[in-house]
Design goal:
- The chain is mainly alpha-helical.
- It has one domain.
- The protein has 14 helices and no strands.
- Helix 1 packs parallel to helix 4 and helix 5 runs antiparallel to helix 9.
């Protein structure tokens, strides 16, 4: 019975991941989103998941694509240092930081920072191995990345396909908690990078809009965690995120006030420090 329940929840979780990807596509792509909506109207939820969740961590990649489009520079110091990987011993810390490093990997590859891309690939691969995520795709990941390090589009596709493969493996193995923690880590890192860029930018209007648009993904993230709220690691994560969610609940019409921005920046910095340190 437990196995049947877990498989049912895993199926719901997979569909929910697709809905998060859809939300990001709608929030960030404008007219293209309307076209995507039309194209997916007649597809099943399962097909939508396979098609849309090419980006396994859509939160990180979509946010970073928006940052790049808004003219933000690459700031290496915002990333979690690769040396920190040896500090993570528990499954929870490894899963959260796989998400964090996945976002950092997305950041580096989008900006074509070759050495940083390889560095964050290596630490991500270490955590993938530590979490015993064994997929045929991931075994050949390093070679694929090295062969395409000068091809931005192909590189991003390879990395996103790898994380998609990772999510699929976790869900199929009924490691829903690990999958949720990876998602949390990547979303938090994407928001953290955005807030820090907004702090240092002379004109942060675009970045403030990007931040405001994180309200819906955070709400969806909570919905994903609800079925697992009785499990300690998920309950702890929800409690950790709750102050941030309370702030976002008051964000209206995709506009973040200065006070809300300051509260979000402070809260996400606190949460992120607790994850990476």
């Amino acid at each position: 019975m437990k196995t049947a329940i877990n498989k049912s929840l895993s199926h719901k979780l997979m569909i929910a991941f697709a809905s998060i990807a859809i939300v990001f596509a709608l929030n960030s792509c404008g007219g293209a989103a309307k076209q995507a909506e039309t194209e997916t109207t007649d597809t099943t939820k399962e097909e939508a998941f396979k098609d849309i969740t090419k980006y396994p961590i859509p939160t990180a990649f979509e946010v970073i694509k928006m940052l790049d489009k808004a003219g933000a520079s690459y700031i290496l110091s915002l990333n979690n240092p690769v040396e920190n990987v040896d500090k993570y011993f528990t499954e929870k810390s490894k899963a959260l930081n796989l998400g964090v490093y996945g976002a950092d990997l997305s950041y580096a590859s989008t900006y074509q920072m070759k050495q940083e891309t390889m560095n964050y690939l290596n630490v991500s691969k270490k955590l993938i191995d530590d979490l015993q995520i064994s997929t045929a795709f991931n075994k050949d990941l390093a070679n694929r990345v090295e062969e395409n390090i000068d091809n931005k589009d192909e590189l991003i596709k390879i990395i996103t396909d790898s994380f998609y493969d990772t999510y699929e493996f976790l869900l199929n193995e009924e490691k829903d908690n690990v999958s949720l923690l990876v998602m949390c880590g990547s979303w938090i890192e994407g928001l953290y990078i955005t807030t820090q860029i907004a702090v240092t930018s002379q004109n942060n209007t675009d970045f403030m809009t990007i931040i405001a648009n994180q309200k819906e993904p955070l709400t969806k993230l909570y919905e994903l965690m609800q079925p697992f709220a009785e499990e300690d690691v998920i309950a702890e994560m929800m409690e950790t995120l709750n102050p941030l969610k309370t702030i976002f609940d008051d964000v209206k019409d995709e506009v973040v006030t200065q006070k809300q921005f300051e509260d979000i920046e402070g809260e996400v910095s606190r949460i992120r420090t607790g994850i990476v340190d």
